[in-house]
Design a protein that fits this description.
This protein is of the alpha/beta class. It is 39% helix and 16% strand. A hairpin with a 4-residue loop joins strand 2 and strand 3. The structure holds pyridoxal-5'-phosphate (PLP). The site of pyridoxal-5'-phosphate has 14 residues, from helix 5. Keywords: Aminotransferase, Pyridoxal phosphate, Transferase.
């Protein structure tokens, strides 16, 4: 709010491919795919056409009770076919945070249905971002997002993002019989691009199985080719109990998210009388949003953006590494997925008082959008970005760093 109050606002007026234009007609390279979501790039007429066709046939209708619609069924089947989850079931929602709430409630409800209602505790990781709905605000790995809202969801705790031993120790501290689930992003995104250490997820998966803790992967950023596959976690060869997705599923053309659930976890709810999972939202399974997602998935497949993504990942990594020698830069984190962080030195941030907001503003003034977080500048361009555009992005960021020195 105080950014807007200082004015003038930056009004995004048009977008095409990796470019956007402001209200004055000036052009910018979208180095962040908006908020990590526009994987196929902007202005795809195939998605616009699919939306038009669907909205003219059936705009929207609830999927409450036994109501269904063809796009929601088809999308769920396609997602299930690609998910690295056993006997997958799909719950559709309108976004990431809502899906985290759904997964957390489902995890607790699952244990209650199995006669273990004391299994309530939710463990997440430092730096992890899971949206700002009720459960997301409660399990987020950055305290500043929780402060000032009173008591939130109780029985949660956070462990260091890079230590499987820390997870095991926390499960033992709480008592395995009280832990419902563990949440992790394949690569931590909004918290600052933190990559898992070698072998981390295999070990996590083993620990969760050993103590019967549900392993919930938050692939909201990492899915839909950003890590060169459908859900990101395939990269580490493990099969979680639930996968939360959003963003890249529709490249953000319309809001959509959801949870893929292991059949074993879904099972108690299918076989109970009445309505054992009293949960749902008005726009879940929205047919027009589902049509947009399927047109987006068609593009990912037709243009093989999975393979493209692996190549972009390598080029982005080497281009960002070029910034490591800059005097203001402490480290570059990249190399898994089309995303990276350029972290400033403590000396720059504290003694010299340089802020990432200043670097962001200088970069934007030079026609490139990056994302500032307290210690780093983050990049996550659309997957259709070219080598030349990546070099333009990193050299512009270098120029902005020089300007604030
Ligand atoms: N989970 C992750 C990993 C995210 O990055 C985000 C949003 O950035 C969310 C959840 C929340 O998604 P939404 O903003 O759609 O609620």
């Amino acid at each position: 709010m105080n950014t807007v109050a200082k004015g003038p606002e930056f009004v995004v007026s048009r977008a095409e491919g990796v470019w956007l234009w402001d209200q004055y007609g000036d052009r910018y390279l979208d180095g962040t795919a908006s908020l990590w979501y526009c994987n196929v790039g902007h202005g795809r007429t195939e998605i616009a056409d699919a939306v038009h066709r669907q909205i003219s046939t059936l705009d929207a209708y609830t999927v409450y009770g036994d109501f269904a619609n063809a796009p929601a069924i088809e999308l769920s089947e396609r997602l299930a076919a690609h998910a690295p989850v056993d006997d997958p079931r799909v719950i559709l929602t309108c976004g990431g945070g809502e899906s985290i709430d759904t997964a957390a409630k489902l995890a607790r409800g699952y244990w209650a249905a199995l006669g273990q209602p004391e299994r309530q505790h939710l463990i997440s990781r430092t730096g992890g971002y899971h949206g700002l709905n009720g459960f997301g605000t409660s399990i987020i790995g950055m305290d500043r997002f929780r402060e000032g809202y009173g008591r939130l969801v109780e029985e949660t705790s956070v462990v260091p993002y890079d230590s499987a031993e820390a997870l095991e120790a926390e499960i033992l501290r709480v008592g395995a019989h009280r832990v419902a689930a563990f949440f992790a992003e394949p690569v931590i995104g909004a918290g600052g691009v933190f990559l898992p250490p070698e072998g981390y997820f295999a070990e996590i998966s083993r620990i969760c199985r050993k103590y019967g803790v549900l392993f919930i992967v938050d692939s909201v950023i990492c899915g839909f080719a950003r890590m060169g596959n459908w859900f990101g976690i395939e990269r580490f060869g493990v099969s979680p109990d639930m996968i939360v997705f959003a963003k890249g599923v529709s490249s953000g053309y319309l809001p959509l998210g959801g949870v893929v659930v292991d059949g074993r976890v879904a099972d108690p709810f299918w076989n109970q009388e009445g309505n054992p999972f009293l949960h749902g939202t008005t726009y879940a399974g929205h047919p027009t949003a589902c049509a947009a997602a399927m047109a987006n998935m068609d593009i990912l497949e037709r243009e093989d953006l999975f393979t493209v993504s692996r190549e972009v990942e390598r080029h982005l990594d080497s281009a960002l590494r070029g910034l490591e020698s800059h005097p203001l830069v402490a480290e570059v984190r990249s190399g898994v997925g089309v995303m990276g962080a350029v972290e400033l030195t403590e000396e720059a941030l504290t003694e010299r008082g340089i802020t990432t907001a200043e670097v962001f503003a200088e970069t934007r003034a030079r026609g490139v959008i990056v994302r500032p977080v307290p210690k780093a500048l983050l990049v996550s361009p659309p997957l259709v970005v070219t080598w030349e555009q990546i070099d333009h992005l990193t050299s512009t960021l270098a120029g902005a760093l020089d300007a604030v020195m």
